[in-house]
What we know:
By secondary structure, the chain is mainly alpha-helical.
Amino acid sequence: MRIFMAIFRNLFMLFLAVTFVAPASPGKAQGLSLIRDAEIEDTIRRMATPLFEAAGLTPSSVEILLVADKDLNAFVAAGQKLFMHTGLLMRADNASQVIGVIAHETGHISGGHLSRMPGAQSQGGATTLVAALLGAATAIGTGRGDVGAAVFQGGVHVANRNFLSFSRTQEGSADQAALALLDQTKQSAAGLLSFMEILEGQDLLTAVNQNAYARTHPLSEDRIRAIRAHIAKSPYADTPVDPALSIAFERAKAKLIGYFGQPQLTLRQYPESDTSIPARYARAFAYSRTPDVPKALATLDSLLADVPDDPYFLELKAQVLFESGDIDGAIAPFRRAVEQKPDEPLLRAEFARVLIETATTENLNEAVKHLKFALSRNRQMPGAWRNLGIAEGRLGNVGESALALAEEALLQGRDVDARFHAGKAAEIFPRGSPQWLQAEDLLLAIKNAKAK
């Protein structure tokens, strides 16, 4: 009996590993490093909106999230979330490729593939469990653990083959949806094809060496052949991408390379002989990270001489000044950036952070106004809630500070802190007041989250 239990325990643990690791959907955000950038999010949104609308989706209901990861990948998750890895944006050769990827992922959403994914995974898990039980029985009957393990591994291979077959079917379906959406929006599928050709050789690599997109989006020659056939007959095959969108993509790509890449490599990729806006933008980031503040500011001034009111050039100049210790100098360019994009919550929240550092009553009050506006547009900003709590606290508004800190803690899953701050606010504000009701709502949300 002891031998049987040891064999079964080992097989069952292997079953758990295969069921919950190997076929796992990439749509879980846990463990992902998410970043926020107003300019890049806006660029992706501009690319995606026509495709979302053509698919019958409400663009504002699809959440776009940037994953700080060098891997070439993109995926969708339940709740209409589109995840884009920074690695994909940096590796893409042009805007058309990114548009093609977005069209493909939109095909997954509109095709309801996410809702069917758990069923395919549970089928694979059931097959694996049966294999585990048969393996254990075989081991007991023959007295040989190696034979039982072989039976189990055979079941695992069958489960994985079945899951990949399901996945390839969904990928082909998403391709067809993408091609239809691109035609509906009068865009070329050439970018989707060239992106697939980048991945074509990945099918020959082991899973360890494959990039994430090839692993999670099984490729086949049939898929590439179908896209080529579509392009051959599409009236939009040679339609170029909107020049403004191409420039926006090149800027976004340069920004990511400048921010995440090694400065020396960035300066090699974008040499000083290249005076284009994206190249100067990338170099400004590289100089700021060296750090060579005077050179970064000189490069940004050259950009602003060409485009005086660009909010993102102004934002970067303000950040360079702020991070170099010139807090007062950062205020003017940040204020101009916000004036150019008054409805952008991320810019408002970043400007508020600079204002808070001055510690003057006037700037603290202005910071509170910016933060409240930003949070009215997007409540899922824990950093903004924290800064609101700091600003309110420095102004002596203890209850308002506690509410903001409770919101931040709840978003970050720190239930103990959230309960403390919400409870403190509930004691400060009169019963029945809007602030008291907010505190009670927070306490209820904490209770429900714990129960769930």
